[in-house]
């Protein structure tokens, strides 16, 4: 079973890129972030024509998350995180797909930091961590994947000394990620490639992709039931080189049935 996550940076504007990648790689399940489309503007027909059923949580101009499944076995279990009734951002959707609970998330960026946006990011992280603990308590296979907007270690960022004050790399943000993982989650890419330089995002500016000046901010966290089923993981880096593409590349894992 192949599961992928992809921050598309605008699902309608990048639809040809998304469809090309889906046709090329045919993942079984796909989590999308940054749809940047209201609920009624999600390209459901085009996704269906590509062979996928979908659930999505849209928002005009910003945010937005979706889960796609080739099998059609997709049952939504949650949209949004508990703990802040005033938070209207479309950043989390969860479903039961082929026997696995899959949470698709788009964690806040947090910049400029310090300030209210960083405070919102850390608060959202706390809510995610609370929900993640609840998911683990159910003793089911769970995947939490998406754009976490955090580089966990210096290995995950090109020239880390330049990022020390950025909300994606500040100590309190990395600490929040470590606290989440410490509940019992496995960082899938680091499980298989503990010492390799792996990036999932390259800025549009200063030829970042060409220089491989990237960041690893898109992650797969696996519950203990799935750690032993992890077969492979990788980044479809070449997709970032396509014309009019997202600044993220798709990330994927393969798990045994």
From TrEMBL:
Residues at the active site: 106, 147, 248
Cofactor field: Mn(2+); Mg(2+)
Signal peptide residues on this chain, from the entry's feature table: none
Sequence ranges assigned to domain Endonuclease/exonuclease/phosphatase in this UniProt record: 4-248
Protein's GO biological process: DNA repair
Pfam families for the chain: Exo_endo_phos (PF03372)
Annotated site residues (Transition state stabilizer) in this chain: 149
Site location (Interaction with DNA substrate): 248
Family annotation (PANTHER family): EXODEOXYRIBONUCLEASE III
Protein name (database record): Exodeoxyribonuclease-3
Native species: Pedobacter hartonius
């Amino acid at each position: 079973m192949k599961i992928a996550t992809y921050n598309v940076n605008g699902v309608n504007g990048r639809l040809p890129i998304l469809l090309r990648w889906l046709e090329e790689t045919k993942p079984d399940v796909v989590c999308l972030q940054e749809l940047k489309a209201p609920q009624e503007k999600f390209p459901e027909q085009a996704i269906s024509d590509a062979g996928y059923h979908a659930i999505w949580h849209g928002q005009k101009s910003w945010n937005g998350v979706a889960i796609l499944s080739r099998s059609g076995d997709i049952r939504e279990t949650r949209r949004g995180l508990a703990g802040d009734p005033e938070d209207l951002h479309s950043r989390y959707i969860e479903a039961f797909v082929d026997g696995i609970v899959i949470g698709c998330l788009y964690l806040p960026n947090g910049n400029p930091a310090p300030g209210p946006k960083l405070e919102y990011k850390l608060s959202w992280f706390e809510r995610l961590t609370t929900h993640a603990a609840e998911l683990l308590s159910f003793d089911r296979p769970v995947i939490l994947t998406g754009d976490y907007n955090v580089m966990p270690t210096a290995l995950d960022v090109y020239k880390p000394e330049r990022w020390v004050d950025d909300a994606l790399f500040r100590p309190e943000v990395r600490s929040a990620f470590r606290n989440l993982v410490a509940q019992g989650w496995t960082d899938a890419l680091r499980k298989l490639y503990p010492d390799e330089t792996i990036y999932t995002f390259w800025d549009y500016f200063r030829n970042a992709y060409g220089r491989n000046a990237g960041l690893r901010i898109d992650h797969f966290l696996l519950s203990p039931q799935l750690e032993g089923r992890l077969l492979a993981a990788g980044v479809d880096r070449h997709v970032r080189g396509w014309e009019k593409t997202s600044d993220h590349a798709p990330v994927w894992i393969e798990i045994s049935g």
